[in-house]
Design brief:
Layout: E1 8-12, E2 18-20, E3 25-27, H1 29-37, E4 42-46, H2 54-67, H3 75-84, H4 93-106, H5 108-117, H6 123-145, H7 170-195
Parallel strand pairs: 1-4
Antiparallel strand pairs: 1-2, 2-3
Helix pairs in contact: 1-2, 4-6, 6-7
């Protein structure tokens, strides 16, 4: 997608109507969904307060699409996402999801080709493999940025026999919890791919 176009401003009024300032017309959520599919960037502001509400409008578009039966988000994913709200690793989740979807988008043509070549085979296997690669890449990225991230040595061999391990820093426990949750998510995805 080329970034040569300006971002369109959409205003949302109290009557819930959306106004496209670029075309000087009222638009619907479906129109905005089509703009997203066409690669058109827009930002939504509350007309009264001036507050940016793009995230809530995009979420509303997803909600509408899901209600039409175009289910893209698995129930297990939605439940796990809800569990992350208020969790100690909540701030890491958006970065992880951005990283995963960006990787998926970059590889989607390759994935489509694999699915076409696998005529008669289960296309879920190709998706599962892509998810596994994304998870591995994310874990490698976490190892580079976090001193106690997944896969880092804990130097237990260096302690003399009979000595107790030092108390883990609170952050270390958070990363262990995150690793367990990521592993659990991977197992669920693997299980889903086998069912389908």
């Amino acid at each position: 997608m080329a970034k040569d176009k300006e971002t369109t401003t959409i205003k949302k009024y109290a009557n819930r109507r959306l106004y496209n300032t670029g075309t000087s017309t009222y638009v619907t959520l479906e129109d905005l969904a089509q703009m997203v599919k066409n690669g058109e960037d827009f930002v939504v502001f509350d007309a009264k307060t001036g507050e940016e509400i793009t995230r809530s409008v995009l979420t509303q578009i997803i909600f509408e699409q899901e209600n039409k039966g175009q289910n893209l988000l698995p129930i297990t994913f939605l439940r796990q996402l809800i569990r992350f709200y208020g969790d100690s690793i909540q701030n890491i989740i958006p970065t992880y999801l951005d990283f995963s979807i960006d990787s998926f988008v970059r590889d989607q043509d390759k994935l489509r080709g694999q699915m076409k070549n696998a005529f008669g085979a289960n296309p879920i296997d190709a998706i599962g493999e892509q998810v596994r690669r994304n998870t591995e890449m994310f874990e490698q990225a976490m190892r580079m940025f976090l001193p106690f991230g997944p896969g880092r040595p804990d130097n237990t061999a260096a302690r003399p026999p009979g000595s107790e391990a030092p108390a883990a820093a609170p952050a270390e426990g958070d990363f262990d919890a995150m690793r367990r949750q990521l592993d659990e998510m991977q197992k669920r995805l693997d299980k889903l791919s086998r069912k389908e």
